[in-house]
Structure formats: structure tokens, C-alpha cells
Design a protein that fits this description.
156 residues; mainly beta; AOC barrel-like; eight-stranded antiparallel sheet; 8 strands; elongated; DUF3224; SO1590-like_sf; DUF3224 domain-containing protein
């Protein structure tokens, strides 16, 4: 197993507004527009290069395991395709709880770090949420800074 710089942590998002309630008033549904932010740590990184040219950057496949804590609490496994440790695309299955609701869900996300304007993008894959998370929709972004690794879900 080779430890590498995790490109999923390249870009930032703003912290959620204080007091943001993740559930629609009087319902069991997640409120549209709610932001949920949590911390995570990378617990496994297994990288395998599949194209290593003399110039232009290595292409690799990476299996990443994460442990989340906070409003998002559980574990995930992701398969990333990386380009020169500057960009990635990933499919990631999370299992655990989000705002106290238990189940699993698949995220698809990616990012590019051009050293000046790093950014990530991502979505909850429709139809993949199970258990109490069934029907969950929205976007996901990852951020890495001096305070650690963070994930933010914006529910839709």
C-alpha cells in the first residue's frame, strides 16, 4: 500500500450556516438545501499505476477507505481514477448514518487541483440510498485544510 496525496481533498466549501436543520419541518424528509458537514480520515490507500509515461503524469487506480465522524458517521470505500496526482474521478459507497439516519448511499465525485484554483464536484447517485437514507439527493464536496479533512453534503 502506497500513501499518496489524496486529490479528493483539494478544494474547499463554505461551512454550513449555524442552526441549519437537515429535516423539513414536520416531516421525516431531509430539507432541500440543508448542508451537513463532517470530518473524515483516510484509513486506507491502495494505488496501482496503469500508465506511467516518461512525461505527462501517471494515471492510476486507487482504492480509498475512509472513516467519517460527526453528522456523517460511518465508513466508505471509493475507487478513484487519478491523473498525475492533480485530478481524479471516483465512485464511493458510504455506509453509516447521515444526521442520525442509517443506511448506505453512493457518491460520484471528482476534482482538479491546478495549484491556483483547486475545486471538487460531486453528486449523490439517484436511487442508490438504502434504509433510512432512501430518497436522499444532493451534492457532495470535499475539503482539506489546516483543520483536517471535511465533507459537505448539500441536500436537494
Amino acid at each position: 500500500m502506497t500513501q499518496s496525496t489524496d486529490p479528493t481533498l483539494a478544494a474547499g466549501t463554505e461551512a454550513p450556516a449555524p442552526g441549519t436543520e437537515p429535516f423539513a419541518p414536520g416531516t421525516e424528509s431531509f430539507a432541500s438545501g440543508s448542508e451537513i458537514t463532517a470530518e473524515f480520515e483516510v484509513t486506507g490507500w491502495d494505488e496501482r499505476a496503469y500508465d506511467e509515461p516518461a512525461e505527462g503524469g501517471t494515471l492510476a487506480r486507487v482504492t480509498v477507505r475512509k472513516a467519517f465522524r460527526g453528522a456523517v458517521d460511518g465508513t466508505s470505500v471509493a475507487e478513484l481514477l487519478t491523473a498525475a496526482n492533480r485530478a481524479y474521478v471516483a465512485s464511493e459507497r458510504f455506509t453509516g448514518s447521515i444526521a442520525g439516519r442509517h443506511g448506505s448511499v453512493v457518491y460520484q465525485h471528482g476534482g482538479v487541483d491546478d495549484a491556483e484554483n483547486p475545486r471538487t464536484f460531486g453528486h449523490i447517485v439517484p436511487g442508490t440510498a438504502t434504509g433510512d437514507l432512501a430518497g436522499l439527493r444532493g451534492t457532495i464536496t470535499f475539503r482539506h485544510d489546516d483543520t483536517g479533512h471535511h465533507v459537505t453534503l448539500v441536500l436537494g
